[in-house]
Amino acid sequence: CSRPQKVCLCPFLPVHPLKVSTCLYIIQHPAEESRVLRTVPLLAACLPPDKCKILVGRRFNEERYPELATVCRSPSTLILYPGAEATNLEEVAVMSSSPSVMIIIDGTWSQAKDIFYKNSVFRLPKQVQLKPSISSQYVIRTQPTNTCLSTLECAAVALSIMEKNKSIQETILHPLQALCSFQLQHGAQIHHSKEHLLKNGLYDKPMPKNKRKLRRMELLVNNVKI
Q: Which residue range or ranges hold the DTW domain (predicted)?
């Protein structure tokens, strides 16, 4: 896990990489590389190297990333990104019997949106989303809403659906739970979502002056999907 011995997470990782037929392509915003508490390294440690490929960058054109472009053009490739055009993953998984490729964008919501909309190659695969049925267990990092998930959590849920194996989700989430437990024991605080803080009058930061950001916060308070 590459962490100090005192907070080593190796005992919480699977003894052997999980056997899955689905291949993940993690498109990681460069800013994520410098974050101390990243979840993608834990995800990669749970899967075989050929089933979890990480590409770092903001722009992905076909000339520079021909392999990625080929993957995006394949009919068996899905991209996990919520929106009006997205189909619930459960519906797609029922009809899918062959090994698939899933693309997941790793970054803040604004970073993920920037990558998705400024790279036309990511609008070639079928767009899918997860049902907002679980709350994030990544409690040491603030999420926009109660049902926003970390990249590792998204991958865990998605793989369990695609592979039709609930235990995959439990196995991948195990090191994340241990990470949060270690951090809380060493002084970290539980972070409620921005949605929770706003609704309960606990948001203690200055309200944004930018009208677009202010509008997004109003939508969070009023339970409007953003």
A: 1-188
